[in-house]
Every structure is written in structure tokens, then in C-alpha cells.
Design goal:
By secondary structure, the chain is an alpha/beta fold. 25% of the residues lie in helices and 26% in strands. It has two domains: 4-149 and 314-345, Quinone Oxidoreductase, Chain A, domain 1; 155-291, NAD(P)-binding Rossmann-like Domain (Rossmann fold). It has helices at residues 42-49, 96-99, 144-147, 150-162, 178-189, 201-209, 223-230, 246-250, 280-284, 297-308, 327-334; strands spanning 4-12, 15-22, 30-39, 62-70, 83-86, 127-131, 135-137, 170-174, 193-197, 214-216, 236-241, 256-264, 288-291, 318-323, 341-345. The strands form three sheets. Strands 3, 4, 5, 6, 7, 14 and 15 form a seven-stranded mixed beta sheet that branches. It has a six-stranded parallel beta sheet with strand order 10-9-8-11-12-13, with helices on both faces.
Amino acid sequence: MSDTYKRAVFVGEKEIRIDEVPIPEPGPHQALVKVKACALCTWEQRMYFGHEKIYPLSGGHEVAGELVSVGPYVHLDAKPGDRVMCSPLNRCGYCDACRNGLDNICENANKPVNDSDVPGPAGLAEYMLLEDYQVFKSKNDIPFEELALSEPLACVTRSIRKSNLKASENAVIIGAGIMGLLHLRLAKNMGARVIVSEVNQERAQMAKKMGADEVIDPTQGGYTDQIKALTDGRGADVVYCAVSIASALEQSFDAIARGGRVMVYASIYPKGSKISIDPNPFHSREITLTGTVSQGREDVHTAVKMISNRLFDMRPFISKTYPFSSIHEAFEAAIKPDTYRVVLTMD
């Protein structure tokens, strides 16, 4: 086995440097994983196309691989050779957020954990060095490409959980990209009635295929009027905004039921965008505006178990796979509206 491995680093708009770096030895509480699959999230897509410019950055955080070795004080349920999901979000465990059960927004999440010369989760590589808490065991018959999507599923699991969605409630999902569709599938599993709002007709058809009870085009007949008509005038109990458009979030407040919840799932772009809303319904109708980011360890554990036990089929969300050597082609494919997730494979 070679003593070096390849690692992709974003260094500019559509510029990726491939480094050859030494394979590290895991420390006392660390694990070394041979990466088998890494999906290209919209965050990495924004870095590649220059919509966000954090350079240099070693991206890649939707990762699955094979456990290679662990440090002497690691007590995982996985053993070398097992398939694992890698959750590279840093969680210090001792800041106020972590100790209050909010390790998804750890105050030290962006501080380096490993002695790396380049910041970032570093999953776009042939190997990953992880802290022991970042490794989650899967069953060994689950394809790596599917297991890599545990990370986005975990993020949506947190969103559904925080919204307190109940059976028979009317859930509205704005956007039928991969995150919107994952919300759709989980909400249906919870016994909710799901309405999807989507302007792209191909994605609208996919939402119907995935089990949406109703699909609307918000540009045809008015978003609020259509939601009210489909809910006997009551409005949505929960709205999940899974698009990065401020106006889409803004229009949700007129379509929300008494006691309803508006969940900001997607980051709103451009940064600094503003919304204008009447504050009175927060008082008079007791509506809630909140959101989620990333996932807690509980959410990751749940997502990995769902995929590992075949309770959630990720295959419809994998649009294309590319070898690591075709990373530029993979990013060009990932940005197209007819794809959900593009996955890089390392072999």
C-alpha cells in the first residue's frame, strides 16, 4: 500500500488542486477511514463555482468508506474492514451549545481538530482522519453511494424532528430538490398530508412519484390561495422552506395555520437577504418561525440506521456517479437542475 493519498482542494473558481499527502496514523481517539464515496452537496457546488469563496478549502462532507484502523482508546462498534458513514462536523462537547444538546451548532465547530495544512471536512480524498465520535457503523451490504447520503438525510431528520410534525397535519414543502424530496418522504412516513410547491415541472413530477398528496406551481393561481384551497381554508400546519429564495420564505406566513410552524431549512442567498413580515400573527395566531442547520449525533445515528436497515431507499436520489479522477465533470453535472445528487467514487 502506498504511504500517500490524493486529496482535492478548492483553490479558486472552478479550480481544484490535487494534493499528494501522507496517510496519517490515527491518534488515541481517532479513526482512519478509506473513502469509497463522497456526494457533492450544494455547499461544495457553491465553492467550486465561486458563489462562496473560502480558499483554500478541502471540501467533502457526505462521505462513506471502509474503516482502516483506530487509536488505542477508541471503542467503536465497527472493526477494520466494516462500512462506515463519516460525519465530519466538529463537536467539541464542552462549549455551552454542546452541553445544551445543540452540538450541531458547536461554538468550536470551525476550529481545527486535526493537524491539517488545509481547513475543511476533507472528504474529497482517498482517506479521512476522523475523531471517533464522527464514525457511524453501517451494515456491510449497503452500497457506499447510498450510505454517503446519510448526512443529508440526517439534516432533514433534524428538521422534521424540530418542527414537531404530527400525523394528519398539513405539511407544505417549498422546493422539490433533493432536500425537499427527503422532507417529503420523511413527512409521509410520519403520517402527514404533504403539499409540495415547485415551479420546475420535472421536479414537480418527481414529487408526485415520491408520494406527494398535492403538488402546486406557486406561479399559477397564487401560492397562498392554492394552499388555503387545499386545506379547507385553514392553511399549513408546517412549512419547510427548502429553497434559497427569500421571497419564497416570505410568502409562507400568509399560508400558515394558527399555531403553525415555518421552518427555514435552506440557507437564504445571497447572504444578507431580508424578509418583510407583519409581526402581529406571531402574537395573535401563535405561529413560530425557526430553522435548523446540519444535524446532531442523534440525527446521524437515526439516518444511518434507516439506510442500513433498508427503511429508506436512497437510490432515487443518486442521479450520477463519477470516478474521483473526473471531479470537474462531476461538478458540472451536479449543478444541472435535472440532478439530485452526484456522487464521486474513489475506486
